[in-house]
Each structure stands twice: as structure tokens, then as C-alpha cells.
Specification:
The protein has 63 residues and is α+β, with helices and mostly antiparallel strands. It is built from 3 helices and 3 strands, in the order E-H-H-E-E-H.
Length: 63
Amino acid sequence: MIINKTILNLQDVQQLLNLSAYSVYRLIHEKKLYAYKDDGGKSWKIPEQSIIDYLSSRKSIYS
């Protein structure tokens, strides 16, 4: 899976996973999706590897 960005913002993740902002925030707060705050704590940054790990964990649930 190639996303072509190393760090994604919340909107990127919403589009990529086809989720609402609320759902992405929930995944972050439930620690199912690793993210950190940047820009003085104003915006979430989600590493590409975090998305890959999340998708892999979802795949193993349904396997």
C-alpha cells in the first residue's frame, strides 16, 4: 500500500479510510490509530505506518 506521504493530517485519513472526523478522533483516542499533535498542539498528525498498522489489524480480525 502506497500513500505517497509520510505524515498525514486528519482530512487525509478521513478520505483514505472513508470515515468521518468523529470516527478518526475516536480511533485516535481509543489508541487504535497512533497520532500526535503538532503545530503547537492544534492539529493531529498521523504517520503513514499508523494507517498501515491499523488496516493490518482490521484485516486480521476478519481473517
